[in-house]
Amino acid sequence: MTPASAADPKRWWALAVIALAQLMVILDGTIVNIALPSAQRALGMPDADRQWVITAYTLAFGGLLLLGGRIADLVGRKRAFVIGLAGFAVASALGGAAAGPGTLFAARALQGAFAAVLAPSALSLLTTTFTDPRERAKAFGVYGALAGGGSGAGLLVGGLLTEYLDWRWCLYVNVPVALAALIGAQVFLRDRSGPRGGHLDVPGVLLGSGGLVALVYGFSEAGPRGWTSPWVAAPLMAGVILLAAFVWWQHRAAGPLLPLRIFRDRSRAGAFATMGLATIGMFGVFLFLTYYFQAVLGYPPVRTGLAFMPVSVGIVIGATQIAARLLPRTAPHTLMASGMVLAAAGMVLLSRLTVHAQYVPHVLPGLLLVGLGMGLTFMPVYATATVGVPTQDTGAASAALTTVQQIGASLGTVLLNTIATGATGATGRHSRAHGPADSGTALAEAMVHGFSVAYWCSAGVLLLAALVAALTVRRGKPSQAGSKPSA
User: Fold this and answer.
1) Could you give the CA distance from residue 338 to residue 356 in angstroms, rounded to a whole number?
2) Environment class of residue 204 by beta-carbon count within 10 Å: exposed (0-12), middle (13-18) or buried (19+)?
3) How far apart are CA 464 and CA 483, in angstroms?
4) Closest listed residue to residue 462, CA positions, set 339, 375, 379
5) What is the pLDDT of residues 442-458, one digit of tens each?
6) Inter-axis angle of helices 332-350 and 364-386, to 10 degrees?
7) Which of 82, 221, 270, 401 makes a 20 to 30 Å CA pair with 408?
8) 3-class DSSP state of 1
9) Which SS3 state, helix, strand or coil, does residue 434 take?
10) Does the CA dihedral 279-280-282-284 come out positive or negative?
């Protein structure tokens, strides 16, 4: 056992605190989804504006992650963690008490902003707390399980709170959770950030955050408006230009917001690419299955949330019971590639669903394979992407990895939804052209066909992720950022 780990007998309690905070951030990405119709009715929210309950959070979170990671590097991980927790609790209370849509939108944006400070500091605290390889594998197994399974759990928790309490509790529930984590942070967390100082890269903040916000906004608007809309094309183009300028500036800045030396190691860069492709391929599952369970199979909200739990269970088992045990003696790329192949097989099974499918024989096997595959992948990705990064850059590296995950989720949801919608429309037109049919059945069959096409595309993306992991991630651990990578 390394001295660092041996000197901190509270490290496992620290993991519990970090995990609690991370779970809260992940849950809030989906916990309001099922509550949204109730909130819309209560606040008199127009249909055209309701998406902002989701988009305000994702925009602020995805757009400000790089800034949040650098703040953690400059002021200290523990201090940034505490600031993020306190701000998230206040924003959640504000949203729960909202009397109108504007207040709710603002609260969700504030949640996203403080989550952008909290998430990178949590991951970098985990990176610096656990240095022994076996303990590190266990800790990242827990973290990877929460990161992958939290979205599914959020749907269940949101459904339970909405049905048995009130939609406002989907926000209020964060307050006691954040307070418990704040107390735990003061007692159990230790900051090993080392020397701090320097200055904030203001041009980098403007270029990087502006580019990310533009990209996330463009992706979020592509679904309702279409890819040809100027409200989509303009922000996407602006995002690409701003991020290109951001990369150019980071090569020249004295204290860059995102030190590009982080990506010079091939294994670390491969882990980032694998994470991006995995989230692109995965996140359409939650969207399509939500519609499939409720619109096709007629599930109520709570049953819909429960139906997603096998994904979360599979991720937990894959990350904590399989990957965490194998990583100390197995090459990371073997776990990543195997996980992506398993997840792709699960997508293929889901592509075979019909309007008359039953949950246990037809849906459950695919969900379990997807969950196991994601758990096998996320855990070694997190461990590989953060190991070997100098202490002063761990916040930036953690933020970059979470940013890749957020951008991949936004892009994957929009791309797969576009593919599914196009296939559904084409099937519906074909059915109408070949004679009359029961309109409800025809619509359901067209919808399921669209989902099937999207699942095949997801399987292809996940197999590409497996190939990237196999070819780029080496057996040894990544080199120190900024040093010459080992051969």
Assistant:
1) 31
2) buried
3) 29
4) 339
5) 888 888 999 999 999 99
6) 150
7) 82
8) coil
9) coil
10) positive
